[in-house]
Fold:
Amino acid sequence: MPRPMTITEKILAAHAGLPEVEPGQLINCALDIVLANDVTAPIAIREFRRTGLSKVWDPEKIALVPDHYTPNKDIKSAEQAKVMRDFVREQGITHYYEIGCMGVEHALLPEQGVVGPGDVIIGADSHTCTYGALGAFATGVGSTDAAAGMATGEAWFKVPASLKFNVEGELSPWVSAKDIILHIIGMIGVDGALYQAMEFTGSTIEALDMDGRMTVCNMAIEAGGKSGIIAVDDTTRAYVNGRFEREAVEYHSDPDAVYAAVYEIDAADIVPTVAFPHLPSNTRPAAEARDIKVDQVVIGSCTNGRLEDLRVTAEVLKGRTVHPDVRLIIIPATQEIYRQAMHEGLFDIYLDANAAVSTPTCGPCLGGHMGILAAGERAVATTNRNFVGRMGDPTSEVYLASPAVAAATAVAGHIALPEDLE
Ligand code: SF4
Structure:
């Protein structure tokens, strides 16, 4: 009998060809997908060429997404995107998404059915952990590891210990998945899950739609987590059926699986939350931050640029206009989300409110383009990082929040809750 295992341990054991694994064990795993973007792929490609191999391991299992500085913001970013595009053509890589089909990678890959339940995925991007929402083991790696993955289809891991976050109960109005994960990061700190798998369970998590689950797993890395994961249920199945291009494999934690720690969280204790500069763990209730005036609001990114986020944004903005001192930038995370939002009439609401709507891109999330902050400026963003200078000048500030709080803030001109608006 194998030892009782967590969902993460089961996925890793299966991909290592072992009956069981335990935390701390070094294993070599078969990979299902290797991901890189316009920043990391050029380095991975250079390292791949140093192996002397002429062909990648499997051109159908590598996903390359030009999302960070695209549509190209300058000559350097154009050159980087070109390195990736040329490699795609040379190698016959199938999962490549050109401008016009592109999206922010961690919204795009689940949407396009490239990643799914039971997978082991490495990505040369730290928010690769997002795909844990599908019941997969997904983790960010450096470009060199991505190059090795592209060459061999394998990667070694130290099996992470697991932490369980059991969230029970109903969320209050305007409290969302973003507030759940900000609450957790505020509770355990930015190193509270260092090299551990964050497993999210409980009735509150089960009640989240897939967009919300991806928001939660997306920010596992902000607590230092190796990965985030939510077990497959009917919500997951409804999402992946007819979309995921391979066979979904479901794993569930054994009832007697061992966790490094178990956190019990009452949903009633979670309120609309804002992370103050310059750490995602620097959280406070949004209701206590109403004195913070802002210059810019960004709604988008791999954390909160999905359709549900855009719908909530429209619900708050409908019939209102953005405060004259604020620039509101809304960025649907993929072309499909963009199209659906347009069909639902959300763009009319945004434009009537005087918001700017962008083609999908990471853009301002990493201070790339489409909304760089000047010295001393403040932004509220639905993104996942608020480190010094993340969105522009080192003296600028980023406050992380949910789409509902971000939209209300854009209207009020200071951090606000939707119920604050007339
Ligand atoms: Fe990274 Fe931001 Fe792009 Fe997400 S949206 S992949 S956090 S740059």
Q: What stands out?
A: Residues 68, 104-106, 125, 127, 301-302, 362, 365-366, 383-384 surround iron/sulfur cluster (CB under 6 Å). The radius of gyration is 20 Å.
